Protein backbone atom coordinates (compact mmCIF):
# COMPACT_ATOMS: atom_id res chain seq x y z
CA UNK A 1 0.00 0.00 0.00
CA UNK A 2 1.40 3.37 -1.04
CA UNK A 3 1.23 6.81 0.54
CA UNK A 4 -1.95 8.72 -0.28
CA UNK A 5 -1.46 11.67 -2.61
CA UNK A 6 -4.02 14.45 -2.35
CA UNK A 7 -5.58 16.23 -5.30
CA UNK A 8 -3.95 19.58 -5.91
CA UNK A 9 -6.01 22.68 -6.56
CA UNK A 10 -5.29 24.22 -9.94
CA UNK A 11 -3.99 27.78 -9.89
CA UNK A 12 -6.31 29.01 -12.65
CA UNK A 13 -9.39 27.39 -11.12
CA UNK A 14 -11.68 28.93 -8.50
CA UNK A 15 -13.05 26.58 -5.84
CA UNK A 16 -16.42 27.32 -4.26
CA UNK A 17 -18.43 25.28 -1.75
CA UNK A 18 -22.22 25.70 -1.83
CA UNK A 19 -24.29 24.49 1.11
CA UNK A 20 -27.98 24.07 0.35
CA UNK A 21 -31.25 22.61 1.58
CA UNK A 22 -34.65 21.84 0.02
CA UNK A 23 -38.08 22.25 1.56
CA UNK A 24 -40.77 20.20 -0.17
CA UNK A 25 -44.52 19.77 -0.29
CA UNK A 26 -46.06 16.37 0.36
CA UNK A 27 -49.64 16.76 -0.82
CA UNK A 28 -49.34 15.53 -4.43
CA UNK A 29 -50.25 11.85 -4.77
CA UNK A 30 -48.09 9.63 -6.97
CA UNK A 31 -49.96 8.58 -10.08
CA UNK A 32 -51.60 5.22 -9.51
CA UNK A 33 -50.78 5.25 -5.78
CA UNK A 34 -53.24 7.43 -3.92
CA UNK A 35 -51.69 6.61 -0.53
CA UNK A 36 -48.16 7.60 -1.64
CA UNK A 37 -47.16 11.26 -1.95
CA UNK A 38 -44.31 12.87 -3.86
CA UNK A 39 -41.82 15.34 -2.39
CA UNK A 40 -41.96 18.38 -4.68
CA UNK A 41 -39.53 21.25 -3.88
CA UNK A 42 -41.05 24.66 -3.21
CA UNK A 43 -38.04 26.31 -1.53
CA UNK A 44 -34.26 26.07 -1.68
CA UNK A 45 -31.74 28.15 0.24
CA UNK A 46 -28.04 28.05 -0.61
CA UNK A 47 -24.96 29.70 0.87
CA UNK A 48 -21.68 29.86 -1.07
CA UNK A 49 -18.19 30.18 0.41
CA UNK A 50 -14.63 30.01 -0.88
CA UNK A 51 -11.19 29.93 0.74
CA UNK A 52 -11.18 33.74 0.98
CA UNK A 53 -14.50 34.16 2.82
CA UNK A 54 -15.16 30.83 4.58
CA UNK A 55 -14.25 32.24 8.01
CA UNK A 56 -16.82 35.06 7.73
CA UNK A 57 -20.00 33.91 9.50
CA UNK A 58 -22.65 36.35 8.27
CA UNK A 59 -25.18 35.22 5.67
CA UNK A 60 -25.60 38.48 3.71
CA UNK A 61 -21.95 38.69 2.63
CA UNK A 62 -20.63 39.59 -0.83
CA UNK A 63 -17.39 38.00 -2.00
CA UNK A 64 -15.42 38.84 -5.14
CA UNK A 65 -15.11 35.12 -5.92
CA UNK A 66 -18.48 33.58 -4.95
CA UNK A 67 -20.54 36.82 -5.20
CA UNK A 68 -23.69 37.06 -3.02
CA UNK A 69 -23.40 34.34 -0.43
CA UNK A 70 -27.06 33.55 0.16
CA UNK A 71 -29.54 32.65 -2.58
CA UNK A 72 -33.26 31.89 -2.10
CA UNK A 73 -35.28 30.08 -4.77
CA UNK A 74 -38.99 29.32 -4.36
CA UNK A 75 -42.28 28.94 -6.21
CA UNK A 76 -44.59 30.13 -3.44
CA UNK A 77 -46.08 32.74 -5.79
CA UNK A 78 -46.02 30.65 -8.97
CA UNK A 79 -46.33 26.86 -8.51
CA UNK A 80 -45.40 26.33 -12.18
CA UNK A 81 -41.82 27.42 -11.49
CA UNK A 82 -39.30 24.66 -10.82
CA UNK A 83 -37.09 25.26 -7.79
CA UNK A 84 -34.58 22.67 -9.02
CA UNK A 85 -34.38 24.40 -12.40
CA UNK A 86 -33.74 27.76 -10.74
CA UNK A 87 -30.90 26.26 -8.71
CA UNK A 88 -29.28 24.59 -11.74
CA UNK A 89 -29.52 27.92 -13.60
CA UNK A 90 -27.71 29.52 -10.66
CA UNK A 91 -24.94 26.90 -10.85
CA UNK A 92 -24.63 27.53 -14.59
CA UNK A 93 -24.06 31.22 -13.88
CA UNK A 94 -20.60 30.44 -12.49
CA UNK A 95 -17.77 30.69 -15.06
CA UNK A 96 -16.37 27.48 -16.54
CA UNK A 97 -13.14 27.80 -14.53
CA UNK A 98 -15.08 27.45 -11.26
CA UNK A 99 -15.16 24.08 -9.51
CA UNK A 100 -18.24 23.73 -7.31
CA UNK A 101 -18.57 21.44 -4.29
CA UNK A 102 -22.23 21.16 -3.29
CA UNK A 103 -23.08 19.91 0.19
CA UNK A 104 -26.46 18.97 1.67
CA UNK A 105 -27.36 16.93 4.74
CA UNK A 106 -28.78 13.53 3.78
CA UNK A 107 -28.26 14.39 0.12
CA UNK A 108 -27.75 10.70 -0.67
CA UNK A 109 -31.42 9.90 -0.02
CA UNK A 110 -33.12 13.22 -0.71
CA UNK A 111 -31.49 16.34 -2.20
CA UNK A 112 -29.31 14.53 -4.76
CA UNK A 113 -32.27 12.48 -5.95
CA UNK A 114 -34.26 15.66 -6.65
CA UNK A 115 -31.36 17.32 -8.48
CA UNK A 116 -30.61 14.19 -10.48
CA UNK A 117 -34.09 14.43 -12.00
CA UNK A 118 -33.31 17.94 -13.25
CA UNK A 119 -29.89 16.91 -14.60
CA UNK A 120 -31.47 14.05 -16.53
CA UNK A 121 -34.21 16.34 -17.84
CA UNK A 122 -31.52 18.69 -19.23
CA UNK A 123 -29.42 15.83 -20.64
CA UNK A 124 -26.49 16.85 -18.44
CA UNK A 125 -24.01 13.98 -18.18
CA UNK A 126 -23.55 12.78 -14.62
CA UNK A 127 -21.52 10.18 -12.78
CA UNK A 128 -22.97 8.53 -9.67
CA UNK A 129 -21.24 6.79 -6.79
CA UNK A 130 -23.85 4.61 -5.11
CA UNK A 131 -24.13 2.92 -1.75
CA UNK A 132 -26.93 0.51 -2.51
CA UNK A 133 -29.61 2.81 -3.92
CA UNK A 134 -28.22 5.90 -2.17
CA UNK A 135 -26.24 8.56 -4.05
CA UNK A 136 -23.19 9.29 -1.89
CA UNK A 137 -21.53 11.30 -4.66
CA UNK A 138 -22.76 12.80 -7.91
CA UNK A 139 -20.53 14.55 -10.46
CA UNK A 140 -21.66 16.65 -13.39
CA UNK A 141 -18.82 18.42 -15.15
CA UNK A 142 -17.17 20.81 -12.64
CA UNK A 143 -19.93 20.15 -10.08
CA UNK A 144 -19.53 17.60 -7.30
CA UNK A 145 -22.49 16.84 -5.00
CA UNK A 146 -21.72 15.13 -1.68
CA UNK A 147 -23.60 14.29 1.51
CA UNK A 148 -22.47 15.89 4.78
CA UNK A 149 -24.18 13.03 6.64
CA UNK A 150 -21.38 10.77 5.34
CA UNK A 151 -18.95 12.89 7.39
CA UNK A 152 -21.14 14.04 10.29
CA UNK A 153 -23.51 11.20 11.26
CA UNK A 154 -25.80 13.33 13.41
CA UNK A 155 -28.98 15.39 12.94
CA UNK A 156 -28.66 19.08 12.15
CA UNK A 157 -30.13 19.86 15.57
CA UNK A 158 -27.07 18.28 17.25
CA UNK A 159 -24.46 20.20 15.26
CA UNK A 160 -24.50 23.54 17.15
CA UNK A 161 -23.69 21.81 20.44
CA UNK A 162 -21.14 19.45 18.83
CA UNK A 163 -19.13 22.31 17.31
CA UNK A 164 -19.72 25.02 19.91
CA UNK A 165 -21.99 27.14 17.71
CA UNK A 166 -23.82 28.58 20.69
CA UNK A 167 -25.57 31.34 18.75
CA UNK A 168 -27.29 28.84 16.44
CA UNK A 169 -30.22 26.56 17.18
CA UNK A 170 -32.43 24.53 14.88
CA UNK A 171 -36.05 25.68 14.98
CA UNK A 172 -39.41 23.99 14.41
CA UNK A 173 -41.58 23.95 11.32
CA UNK A 174 -45.10 22.54 10.70
CA UNK A 175 -44.07 20.34 7.74
CA UNK A 176 -47.58 19.00 7.18
CA UNK A 177 -48.76 22.56 6.56
CA UNK A 178 -46.32 23.05 3.70
CA UNK A 179 -48.91 23.26 0.93
CA UNK A 180 -50.53 26.10 -1.08
CA UNK A 181 -53.40 26.41 1.44
CA UNK A 182 -50.99 27.91 4.00
CA UNK A 183 -48.61 29.94 1.82
CA UNK A 184 -50.32 33.22 2.78
CA UNK A 185 -51.35 32.18 6.30
CA UNK A 186 -50.77 34.67 9.12
CA UNK A 187 -52.35 34.25 12.53
CA UNK A 188 -52.19 32.15 15.66
CA UNK A 189 -49.87 29.16 16.03
CA UNK A 190 -50.86 26.18 13.90
CA UNK A 191 -51.89 22.91 15.54
CA UNK A 192 -49.17 20.79 17.13
CA UNK A 193 -50.08 17.80 14.96
CA UNK A 194 -48.76 19.65 11.90
CA UNK A 195 -45.24 19.61 13.45
CA UNK A 196 -44.98 15.79 13.30
CA UNK A 197 -44.55 15.55 17.08
CA UNK A 198 -45.20 11.80 17.01
CA UNK A 199 -41.92 11.29 15.16
CA UNK A 200 -39.81 13.15 17.74
CA UNK A 201 -37.80 11.49 20.47
CA UNK A 202 -39.03 12.04 24.03
CA UNK A 203 -36.56 14.81 24.95
CA UNK A 204 -37.04 16.57 21.61
CA UNK A 205 -40.81 16.35 22.06
CA UNK A 206 -40.57 17.84 25.57
CA UNK A 207 -38.46 20.72 24.25
CA UNK A 208 -40.95 21.29 21.45
CA UNK A 209 -43.94 21.42 23.80
CA UNK A 210 -42.18 23.98 26.01
CA UNK A 211 -41.31 26.12 22.98
CA UNK A 212 -44.81 25.83 21.49
CA UNK A 213 -46.59 26.65 24.76
CA UNK A 214 -44.37 29.72 25.26
CA UNK A 215 -45.23 30.95 21.75
CA UNK A 216 -48.95 30.52 22.41
CA UNK A 217 -48.66 32.25 25.79
CA UNK A 218 -47.23 35.41 24.26
CA UNK A 219 -49.78 35.40 21.39
CA UNK A 220 -47.12 34.92 18.75
CA UNK A 221 -48.30 35.78 15.22
CA UNK A 222 -47.29 32.95 12.90
CA UNK A 223 -46.50 33.99 9.31
CA UNK A 224 -46.09 30.76 7.34
CA UNK A 225 -44.08 32.16 4.41
CA UNK A 226 -41.69 34.05 6.70
CA UNK A 227 -41.29 31.07 9.05
CA UNK A 228 -40.64 28.62 6.19
CA UNK A 229 -37.89 30.74 4.66
CA UNK A 230 -36.26 31.55 8.01
CA UNK A 231 -36.38 27.87 9.01
CA UNK A 232 -34.60 26.83 5.81
CA UNK A 233 -32.03 29.64 6.19
CA UNK A 234 -31.35 28.48 9.74
CA UNK A 235 -30.76 24.90 8.58
CA UNK A 236 -28.31 25.94 5.87
CA UNK A 237 -26.48 28.30 8.24
CA UNK A 238 -26.06 25.52 10.79
CA UNK A 239 -24.86 23.16 8.07
CA UNK A 240 -22.37 25.67 6.66
CA UNK A 241 -20.82 26.69 9.96
CA UNK A 242 -20.70 23.13 11.33
CA UNK A 243 -19.09 21.74 8.17
CA UNK A 244 -16.60 24.62 8.12
CA UNK A 245 -15.66 23.91 11.74
CA UNK A 246 -15.30 20.20 10.97
CA UNK A 247 -13.15 20.83 7.90
CA UNK A 248 -10.83 23.16 9.85
CA UNK A 249 -10.49 20.70 12.75
CA UNK A 250 -9.79 17.77 10.43
CA UNK A 251 -7.33 19.75 8.31
CA UNK A 252 -5.51 20.87 11.46
CA UNK A 253 -4.88 17.25 12.42
CA UNK A 254 -4.64 15.44 9.07
CA UNK A 255 -3.32 18.25 6.88
CA UNK A 256 -6.00 18.23 4.18
CA UNK A 257 -9.65 19.17 3.59
CA UNK A 258 -11.71 15.96 3.97
CA UNK A 259 -14.75 17.15 2.02
CA UNK A 260 -12.73 18.38 -0.93
CA UNK A 261 -10.57 15.26 -1.13
CA UNK A 262 -13.00 12.49 -0.09
CA UNK A 263 -16.69 11.58 -0.08
CA UNK A 264 -17.00 9.70 3.23
CA UNK A 265 -15.53 10.00 6.71
CA UNK A 266 -14.06 6.48 6.52
CA UNK A 267 -12.24 7.27 3.26
CA UNK A 268 -10.96 10.51 4.81
CA UNK A 269 -9.62 8.63 7.85
CA UNK A 270 -7.89 6.06 5.62
CA UNK A 271 -6.41 8.89 3.55
CA UNK A 272 -5.14 10.56 6.74
CA UNK A 273 -3.55 7.29 7.85
CA UNK A 274 -1.89 6.68 4.50
CA UNK A 275 -0.73 10.30 4.25
CA UNK A 276 0.66 10.78 7.75
CA UNK A 277 1.31 7.41 9.40
CA UNK A 278 1.78 4.61 6.89
CA UNK A 279 5.37 3.55 6.28
CA UNK A 280 6.37 2.51 2.78
CA UNK A 281 6.12 -1.19 1.87
CA UNK A 282 4.51 -2.35 5.11
CA UNK A 283 0.88 -3.25 4.34
CA UNK A 284 0.39 -5.86 1.67
CA UNK A 285 -2.31 -5.55 -0.99
CA UNK A 286 -3.37 -8.99 -2.19
CA UNK A 287 -3.33 -9.16 -6.01
CA UNK A 288 -6.83 -9.24 -7.57
CA UNK A 289 -6.27 -12.76 -8.90
CA UNK A 290 -4.65 -14.04 -5.71
CA UNK A 291 -0.97 -14.84 -5.19
CA UNK A 292 -0.92 -17.72 -7.66
CA UNK A 293 -1.75 -15.78 -10.79
CA UNK A 294 -3.18 -12.73 -12.40
CA UNK A 295 -6.57 -14.31 -12.99
CA UNK A 296 -8.95 -16.70 -11.31
CA UNK A 297 -9.17 -20.32 -12.32
CA UNK A 298 -11.90 -22.71 -11.31
CA UNK A 299 -11.42 -25.42 -8.72
CA UNK A 300 -12.85 -28.03 -11.11
CA UNK A 301 -10.42 -27.04 -13.86
CA UNK A 302 -7.45 -27.36 -11.51
CA UNK A 303 -8.61 -30.80 -10.33
CA UNK A 304 -8.85 -31.99 -13.93
CA UNK A 305 -5.42 -30.57 -14.72
CA UNK A 306 -4.00 -32.38 -11.68
CA UNK A 307 -5.38 -35.64 -12.97
CA UNK A 308 -4.03 -34.97 -16.47
CA UNK A 309 -0.63 -34.16 -14.95
CA UNK A 310 -0.79 -37.44 -13.03
CA UNK A 311 -1.52 -39.39 -16.24
CA UNK A 312 1.18 -37.54 -18.15
CA UNK A 313 3.81 -38.05 -15.46
CA UNK A 314 5.00 -34.45 -15.65
CA UNK A 315 3.95 -31.05 -14.39
CA UNK A 316 1.43 -29.06 -16.43
CA UNK A 317 1.84 -25.33 -16.01
CA UNK A 318 -1.16 -23.69 -14.33
CA UNK A 319 -1.65 -20.70 -12.07
CA UNK A 320 -0.75 -22.97 -9.13
CA UNK A 321 2.56 -24.15 -10.53
CA UNK A 322 3.69 -21.10 -12.44
CA UNK A 323 1.38 -18.49 -13.88
CA UNK A 324 -1.53 -18.84 -16.19
CA UNK A 325 0.12 -19.19 -19.58
CA UNK A 326 -0.71 -17.01 -22.56
CA UNK A 327 -0.44 -18.55 -26.01
CA UNK A 328 -0.73 -16.27 -29.04
CA UNK A 329 -2.05 -13.53 -26.78
CA UNK A 330 -4.80 -15.77 -25.33
CA UNK A 331 -4.81 -17.22 -21.83
CA UNK A 332 -5.08 -20.98 -21.52
CA UNK A 333 -5.84 -23.20 -18.52
CA UNK A 334 -2.79 -25.46 -18.84
CA UNK A 335 0.33 -25.73 -20.95
CA UNK A 336 3.20 -28.19 -21.26
CA UNK A 337 6.02 -28.84 -23.71
CA UNK A 338 6.96 -32.51 -24.25
CA UNK A 339 10.20 -33.73 -25.81
CA UNK A 340 9.70 -36.11 -28.74
CA UNK A 341 11.96 -39.01 -29.78
CA UNK A 342 12.86 -37.26 -33.02
CA UNK A 343 14.22 -34.30 -31.07
CA UNK A 344 11.20 -32.13 -31.63
CA UNK A 345 8.88 -30.56 -29.07
CA UNK A 346 5.16 -31.13 -28.73
CA UNK A 347 3.41 -27.99 -27.51
CA UNK A 348 0.25 -29.04 -25.72
CA UNK A 349 -2.59 -26.78 -24.52
CA UNK A 350 -5.23 -27.85 -21.98
CA UNK A 351 -8.62 -26.11 -22.00
CA UNK A 352 -11.42 -26.69 -19.47
CA UNK A 353 -14.79 -25.47 -20.77
CA UNK A 354 -17.56 -24.51 -18.37
CA UNK A 355 -20.87 -25.61 -19.86
CA UNK A 356 -22.65 -22.30 -19.33
CA UNK A 357 -19.85 -19.91 -20.27
CA UNK A 358 -18.90 -21.82 -23.41
CA UNK A 359 -22.45 -22.82 -24.48
CA UNK A 360 -22.18 -26.58 -24.13
CA UNK A 361 -24.12 -28.02 -27.12
CA UNK A 362 -25.74 -30.62 -24.84
CA UNK A 363 -26.84 -28.54 -21.85
CA UNK A 364 -26.75 -24.93 -23.13
CA UNK A 365 -27.26 -25.05 -26.91
CA UNK A 366 -27.09 -21.74 -28.74
CA UNK A 367 -30.44 -20.12 -29.52
CA UNK A 368 -31.45 -17.69 -32.25
CA UNK A 369 -31.61 -14.87 -29.69
CA UNK A 370 -27.99 -15.41 -28.62
CA UNK A 371 -26.10 -12.39 -29.98
CA UNK A 372 -22.69 -13.86 -29.09
CA UNK A 373 -22.33 -17.50 -30.09
CA UNK A 374 -19.92 -18.56 -27.36
CA UNK A 375 -19.67 -22.13 -28.61
CA UNK A 376 -18.51 -20.95 -32.03
CA UNK A 377 -16.02 -18.58 -30.38
CA UNK A 378 -14.62 -21.52 -28.39
CA UNK A 379 -14.35 -23.64 -31.54
CA UNK A 380 -12.62 -20.86 -33.48
CA UNK A 381 -10.04 -20.39 -30.69
CA UNK A 382 -9.29 -24.12 -30.61
CA UNK A 383 -8.96 -24.23 -34.41
CA UNK A 384 -6.57 -21.26 -34.34
CA UNK A 385 -4.29 -23.04 -31.86
CA UNK A 386 -4.28 -26.25 -33.91
CA UNK A 387 -3.54 -24.43 -37.17
CA UNK A 388 -0.44 -23.01 -35.51
CA UNK A 389 0.92 -26.38 -34.48
CA UNK A 390 -0.43 -26.75 -30.92
CA UNK A 391 -2.04 -29.93 -29.61
CA UNK A 392 -5.25 -28.96 -27.79
CA UNK A 393 -6.78 -31.20 -25.12
CA UNK A 394 -10.32 -30.11 -24.18
CA UNK A 395 -12.64 -31.15 -21.37
CA UNK A 396 -16.23 -30.04 -20.83
CA UNK A 397 -17.49 -29.48 -17.30
CA UNK A 398 -20.35 -31.98 -17.66
CA UNK A 399 -17.98 -34.62 -19.05
CA UNK A 400 -15.58 -34.25 -16.12
CA UNK A 401 -18.43 -34.42 -13.59
CA UNK A 402 -19.58 -37.65 -15.19
CA UNK A 403 -16.07 -39.12 -15.00
CA UNK A 404 -15.82 -38.23 -11.30
CA UNK A 405 -18.73 -40.55 -10.56
CA UNK A 406 -18.44 -43.25 -13.24
CA UNK A 407 -14.81 -43.61 -14.37
CA UNK A 408 -12.98 -46.09 -12.05
CA UNK A 409 -9.52 -44.61 -12.72
CA UNK A 410 -10.64 -41.05 -12.06
CA UNK A 411 -12.53 -42.07 -8.90
CA UNK A 412 -9.54 -44.06 -7.62
CA UNK A 413 -7.16 -41.13 -8.15
CA UNK A 414 -9.24 -38.61 -6.21
CA UNK A 415 -10.05 -41.13 -3.46
CA UNK A 416 -6.31 -41.63 -3.00
CA UNK A 417 -5.70 -37.87 -3.15
CA UNK A 418 -8.67 -36.38 -1.25
CA UNK A 419 -7.05 -33.00 -0.65
CA UNK A 420 -5.79 -32.56 -4.19
CA UNK A 421 -6.50 -29.08 -5.38
CA UNK A 422 -8.69 -27.66 -2.69
CA UNK A 423 -9.92 -24.17 -3.66
CA UNK A 424 -7.26 -21.44 -3.22
CA UNK A 425 -6.86 -19.94 0.22
CA UNK A 426 -8.97 -16.81 0.61
CA UNK A 427 -7.78 -14.70 3.55
CA UNK A 428 -11.31 -13.45 4.23
CA UNK A 429 -12.49 -17.01 4.85
CA UNK A 430 -10.46 -16.95 8.06
CA UNK A 431 -12.44 -14.01 9.44
CA UNK A 432 -15.77 -14.77 11.07
CA UNK A 433 -17.50 -12.29 13.35
CA UNK A 434 -20.86 -11.52 14.86
CA UNK A 435 -22.65 -12.95 17.86
CA UNK A 436 -26.05 -13.83 16.49
CA UNK A 437 -26.67 -17.17 18.16
CA UNK A 438 -30.01 -17.12 19.97
CA UNK A 439 -29.82 -19.74 22.71
CA UNK A 440 -33.49 -19.24 23.52
CA UNK A 441 -36.05 -17.55 21.29
CA UNK A 442 -38.63 -16.71 23.96
CA UNK A 443 -38.85 -16.70 27.73
CA UNK A 444 -41.45 -15.12 29.95
CA UNK A 445 -40.02 -14.07 33.29
CA UNK A 446 -41.88 -15.23 36.39
CA UNK A 447 -41.98 -11.97 38.33
CA UNK A 448 -43.44 -13.70 41.40
CA UNK A 449 -40.24 -15.73 41.68
CA UNK A 450 -38.06 -12.69 41.21
CA UNK A 451 -36.93 -13.58 37.71
CA UNK A 452 -35.40 -10.82 35.61
CA UNK A 453 -34.33 -10.76 31.98
CA UNK A 454 -30.96 -9.12 31.46
CA UNK A 455 -28.68 -8.62 28.48
CA UNK A 456 -24.96 -9.25 28.58
CA UNK A 457 -22.70 -8.00 25.83
CA UNK A 458 -18.99 -8.02 25.12
CA UNK A 459 -17.23 -4.73 24.50
CA UNK A 460 -15.89 -4.69 20.95
CA UNK A 461 -12.46 -6.27 20.72
CA UNK A 462 -11.48 -4.36 17.58
CA UNK A 463 -9.91 -1.35 19.39
CA UNK A 464 -7.84 -3.64 21.60
CA UNK A 465 -6.76 -5.76 18.63
CA UNK A 466 -5.83 -2.68 16.64
CA UNK A 467 -3.83 -1.27 19.56
CA UNK A 468 -2.01 -4.37 20.80
CA UNK A 469 -2.32 -6.96 18.04
CA UNK A 470 0.49 -7.93 15.68
CA UNK A 471 0.02 -6.93 12.06
CA UNK A 472 1.75 -8.64 9.13
CA UNK A 473 4.26 -6.54 7.22
CA UNK A 474 4.91 -7.06 3.52
CA UNK A 475 3.91 -9.99 1.32
CA UNK A 476 3.68 -13.50 2.78
CA UNK A 477 5.87 -16.47 1.88
CA UNK A 478 3.71 -19.00 0.06
CA UNK A 479 3.88 -22.77 0.41
CA UNK A 480 1.81 -25.13 -1.70
CA UNK A 481 0.80 -28.69 -0.96
CA UNK A 482 3.79 -31.06 -1.05
CA UNK A 483 6.42 -28.30 -0.99
CA UNK A 484 9.57 -29.88 0.58
CA UNK A 485 10.75 -26.47 1.82
CA UNK A 486 7.63 -25.96 3.96
CA UNK A 487 8.70 -25.37 7.61
CA UNK A 488 7.38 -27.51 10.49
CA UNK A 489 3.89 -26.69 11.78
CA UNK A 490 5.18 -25.31 15.07
CA UNK A 491 7.13 -22.64 13.17
CA UNK A 492 4.14 -21.34 11.23
CA UNK A 493 2.91 -17.80 11.78
CA UNK A 494 0.21 -17.12 9.24
CA UNK A 495 -2.79 -18.80 7.68
CA UNK A 496 -3.27 -22.30 6.33
CA UNK A 497 -6.12 -23.91 4.43
CA UNK A 498 -6.80 -27.32 5.94
CA UNK A 499 -9.62 -29.79 6.40
CA UNK A 500 -10.88 -30.09 9.98
CA UNK A 501 -12.92 -32.93 11.43
CA UNK A 502 -14.83 -30.98 14.10
CA UNK A 503 -16.26 -32.48 17.31
CA UNK A 504 -19.94 -33.32 16.88
CA UNK A 505 -21.16 -33.02 20.48
CA UNK A 506 -20.40 -29.39 21.42
CA UNK A 507 -23.35 -27.27 22.55
CA UNK A 508 -21.53 -24.09 21.48
CA UNK A 509 -19.48 -24.86 18.35
CA UNK A 510 -16.01 -23.41 17.95
CA UNK A 511 -15.91 -23.39 14.13
CA UNK A 512 -18.16 -21.22 11.96
CA UNK A 513 -20.43 -23.10 9.59
CA UNK A 514 -22.42 -21.62 6.72
CA UNK A 515 -25.67 -23.48 6.19
CA UNK A 516 -27.50 -23.44 2.91
CA UNK A 517 -30.82 -21.60 2.65
CA UNK A 518 -32.86 -24.81 2.48
CA UNK A 519 -31.37 -26.16 5.70
CA UNK A 520 -32.04 -22.85 7.45
CA UNK A 521 -35.67 -22.67 6.31
CA UNK A 522 -36.42 -26.33 7.09
CA UNK A 523 -34.47 -26.18 10.38
CA UNK A 524 -32.49 -29.21 9.27
CA UNK A 525 -30.60 -30.60 12.28
CA UNK A 526 -29.00 -33.53 10.46
CA UNK A 527 -27.15 -31.84 7.62
CA UNK A 528 -24.69 -34.71 7.25
CA UNK A 529 -27.53 -36.94 6.11
CA UNK A 530 -29.73 -34.52 4.19
CA UNK A 531 -27.60 -31.61 2.96
CA UNK A 532 -25.27 -32.13 0.03
CA UNK A 533 -23.10 -29.23 1.05
CA UNK A 534 -19.70 -30.27 2.40
CA UNK A 535 -18.79 -29.32 5.96
CA UNK A 536 -15.03 -29.02 5.50
CA UNK A 537 -13.30 -25.71 6.22
UniProtKB/TrEMBL annotation:
Chemical reaction(s) catalysed: DNA(n) + a 2'-deoxyribonucleoside 5'-triphosphate = DNA(n+1) + diphosphate
InterPro entries documented for this protein: DNA-dir_DNA_pol_B_mt/vir, DNA/RNA_pol_sf, RNaseH-like_sf, RNaseH_sf
SUPFAM superfamilies: DNA/RNA polymerases (SSF56672), Ribonuclease H-like (SSF53098)
Single GO biological process annotation from the record: DNA replication
GO cellular component, one term: DNA polymerase complex
Keywords: DNA replication, DNA-binding, DNA-directed DNA polymerase, Nucleotidyltransferase, Transferase
Entry-linked Pfam families: DNA_pol_B_2
Gene3D superfamilies: Ribonuclease H-like superfamily/Ribonuclease H (3.30.420.10), VSR Endonuclease (3.40.960.10)
Family: Belongs to the DNA polymerase type-B family.
Name the record gives this protein: DNA-directed DNA polymerase
Taxonomic source organism: Frankliniella fusca
Amino acid sequence: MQHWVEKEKKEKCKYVTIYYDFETTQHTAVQGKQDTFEHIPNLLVSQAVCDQCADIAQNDYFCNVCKNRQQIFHNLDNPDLSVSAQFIDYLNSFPARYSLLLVAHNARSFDSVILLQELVKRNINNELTLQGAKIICMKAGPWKFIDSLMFLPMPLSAMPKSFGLNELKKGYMPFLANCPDFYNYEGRMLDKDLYCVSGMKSKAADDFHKWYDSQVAKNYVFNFRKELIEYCISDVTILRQACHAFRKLFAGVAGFDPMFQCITLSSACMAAYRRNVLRVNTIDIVPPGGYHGRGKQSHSALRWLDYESHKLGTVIKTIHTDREVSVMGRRVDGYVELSLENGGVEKRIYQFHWCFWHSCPIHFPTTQDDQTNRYEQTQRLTAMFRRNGFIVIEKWECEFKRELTSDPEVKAYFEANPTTRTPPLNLRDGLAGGRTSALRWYHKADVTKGEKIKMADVVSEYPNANLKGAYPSGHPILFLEGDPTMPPVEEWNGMVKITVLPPQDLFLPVLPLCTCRTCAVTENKDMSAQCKRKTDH
